[in-house]
């Protein structure tokens, strides 16, 4: 007590090791994020940390390639300013029910409770995949069509059938 923790003599924790292909994939993903504008600074910091953490033999294989690949995808590749993203992420992590006021593609507005499963970014739009209690099935909701969102104090157990997401 009062001295902390120690490992048994001869035991060690192995360092985090990536294969060359895994390191290439991570580097390319970070380079792509650098081109997005809104994540460029964080991506640069992450690239530098990864370069410092990799074993030299892997870095020797990866660095020359990474230094010669760039992405020109324009500013705002991933829109992180969309309203409600933080609240949705929290609800997904904590398995909390969300109450939304939502305008669908048919311009009808409904209020409903959903059980968010994941958040997807595609075609320059954020989508929430969730179990919809109003429709009693899995649905996909565009975040930019939310007029109101409230994270409720109610928790849910994620459902197993999360592969079918009709648009609502």
Order of helices and strands: HHHHEEEEE
User: How are the strands of the largest sheet arranged?
Assistant: 4-3-2-1-5
Our Rg estimate from Cα atoms comes to: 21 Å
Q: What would the principal axes of the Cα set say about the shape? A: flat
- Note the total helix count: 4
* Biggest sheet record: 5 strands, antiparallel
Average pLDDT over all residues:
83
- Bin the strand percentage: 25-35%
Structural class: alpha+beta
Question: What level of helicity do the residues show?
Answer: 25-40%
**Care to count the β-strands?**
5
- Would you identify the regions where 5 or more consecutive residues have pLDDT less than 50? none
Q: What gap, in angstroms, lies between the N and C termini?
A: 58 Å
Describe this structure in words.
This protein starts with 19 loop residues before the first helix and ends in a 13-residue tail after the last strand. It has helices at residues 20-34, 40-53, 56-66, 85-94, and strands at residues 96-103, 109-122, 125-132, 137-142, 146-155. It has a 5-stranded antiparallel β-sheet with strand order 4-3-2-1-5, with helices on one face. It is flat. Strand 2 and strand 3 form a beta hairpin. Helix 1 packs across helix 3 (56-66). It is of the alpha+beta class. It is built from 4 helices and 5 strands; from the N terminus they run H-H-H-H-E-E-E-E-E. Helices cover 30% and strands 27% of the residues.
